[in-house]
Design brief:
The protein is built from eleven helices and 13 strands. β4, α6 and β5 form a beta-alpha-beta unit. The radius of gyration is 24 Å and the shape is globular. Among the domains are: 46 residues, MYOD Basic-Helix-Loop-Helix Domain, subunit B, CATH 4.10.280; 259 residues, Type I PLP-dependent aspartate aminotransferase-like (Major domain) (Aspartate Aminotransferase, domain 2). α3 runs parallel beside α8 and α9 crosses α10. With 464 residues, the protein is of the alpha/beta class. It binds pyridoxal-5'-phosphate (PLP). Pyridoxal-5'-phosphate binds next to α4. It comes from Nocardia aurantia. This is Glutamate decarboxylase. Pfam families: Pyridoxal_deC.
Amino acid sequence: MSVRDESEDLFTLPALAHGAPKNRFPELSIPASAAYQIVHDELLLDGVSRMNLATFCTTWLDDQARRLMSETTDKNIVDKDEYPQTAELEQRCVRMVADLWHAPDPDHTPGTSTTGSSEAAMLGGLAAKFRWRARTDGPYAAAKGVPNFVCGPVQVCWEKFARYFDVEIRQVPLRADRFTLHPDDVAAHCDSNTIMVVATMGQTFTGLYEDVAGFAATLDDLQQRTGLDIPLHVDAASGGFLAPFTAPELIWDFRLPRVRSINASGHKTGLAPLGCGWAIWRSTEDLPEQLIFDVDYLGGSMATFNLNFSRPGGQAITQYYEFIRLGRVGYTAVQEEHHHVARHLAQGVEPAGPFELIHDGDPLRGITAVSWRMTEETDYNLYDLSDRLRSRGWLIAAYPLPADRQGETVMRAVIRHGFTHDMVDLLLADVRRSIDHLHRHPLETSLTRQEAGGFTHDATPRSA
Ligand SMILES: *Cc1c(COP(=O)(O)O)cnc(C)c1O
């Protein structure tokens, strides 16, 4: 290839005169500016992340957070000895989160950053499995069978945990009048092979909080009656950085002695950039030694417990930035505003169609989200509405409820940092316009879940 003049217009470069390499490793080099333009332009077809109300994850960051992320792209968080201050900032975050969740001794609470709640959940589950395996007292003296855990409707990471680590998942079917697991239904599914009960603070289906204190009381009673001592793990992926600020009177965390571990996504309500989660244990006894690997750190060693080895350090660093930038006062103000915005959306959605709110953004009942279902048959379904809204750029998930309510479809919109009152007004105008359009142009056949497809809150296993 001849060397071309730098002054040449970008779009006349030979590299842009034909399609980008797609299926085979490219032979030749092209100028960085051309490669950048190809990649940048292809991404124009992606949805606009801030109009994506299906995601729980951070889609807005201030300039300082972006600067820290770009300044730290070269830092590997596993290199504790080489980047001791990155390690230090991560440890400060662990202590701060332990304090936020009322761990008995925040200075000595074991915890780690992770790539997200999924990794954190796996670690919490693995610790429970190792603890269960080591028990030989009372009802645990008999030979052990296949380990299991009991839960209500959970995010797919728990199905993954079950499959990848050979643990049986006992997902209790929903009662016909409920969207969360009823505490009275927990004990009947537990036995001496139950390694934990998983409670969800911020269900992915509806945004509702489960009754963690109710689960704890049930399990306390079970222990009294049978000797079975079953720990609680709280999946607080989205509630972990909300409830402490907007519903401090809700008791769901380490204030309940039965709660032994908690996971949360820093990159959801923690306001950190994508790729940040937290796993925290109640005390050192709750994190089995077998899960710990030591790495060099300032002439000594530091414990690590992660599924990955190399991971970017910027996420934990920027999480620390968010913690010290906002503090309790700032997080409370930000999250209360999201609840207000969610309630504004709820008030507008309910009268727009034959809709019944499941969660209206009430901070005592759930996260900063709104979920609703249809109360009567009409000439469109929620998948059709989702599809219409997509034509205006709004990404809003519609999906069936879990068993035993899988016949019902719900729609959910998650309100996050950067989504304003005014954007809700724009969205509501489009909801009303879409419904009007669907009435005026009734579809011959409504969309199915697969056809509405593309984005969901979840993933489905390919084989049973
Ligand atoms: C999002 C979510 C997860 C998975 O978290 P990631 O950070 O996406 O890995 C797990 N549980 C619940 C309840 C969630 O909302």
